[in-house]
Amino acid sequence: MGQICGAQSSSPDYSITNVANGYHKTIWVKVVAERKYVTLRDSSIENTAGLGFTPIFPGDFDTFRLPANQDPDDPVYITILTSDNAILYNSVPQNENQSLIVDKNGWLKYALSGFIWRDTNDQDHDINSTYSTCPIQ
């Protein structure tokens, strides 16, 4: 698949959060401006799409665009579920316009500014290539 680039918000009206999946399972992601915890009851992950969750396949990413918070210090909240009905992260606060990577072990990493797959320690998490230098355009 090679290098994958994403978008960065140039408009102050929107908060952009990219979530990249370097994990070996499909993840289901929801990014919201208000903290809401998720509980899984007798329902499969596939039924969460109607609840605002977006599937992200291994080696792919998605961009979540929210209206900008009134206070730039207010976080966005990220919930990540796995395809085997596990909750990896439940309403975890993150900075606005901070992109994230779910690494091969399921840990959240901050993406280096301008990159999708490279974390702030300059480690590449793109499972589709050996070295990704693709900055966000």
Description:
- The chain is mainly β.
- It has one domain (14-110): Immunoglobulin-like (Sandwich).
- It has no helices and eight strands.
- A four-stranded mixed β-sheet has the order 4-1-7-8, with no helix packed on it. Strands 3-2-5-6 form a four-stranded antiparallel β-sheet, with no helix packed on it.
- Strand 7 (100-102) and strand 8 (108-110) form a beta hairpin.
- The protein is globular, with a radius of gyration of 14 Å.
- The relative contact order is 0.29.
Blueprint of the fold:
Elements: E1 14-21, E2 27-32, E3 54-56, E4 61-67, E5 76-82, E6 87-94, E7 100-102, E8 108-110
Parallel strand pairs: 1-7
Antiparallel strand pairs: 1-4, 2-3, 2-5, 5-6, 7-8
From the 3D structure, determine the CATH topology. Immunoglobulin-like
Question: Roughly what percent helix?
Answer: under 10%
* Order of secondary-structure elements: EEEEEEEE
Our count of helices gives 0
Which architecture name does CATH use? Sandwich
Number of strands: 8
Low-confidence stretches: 1-9
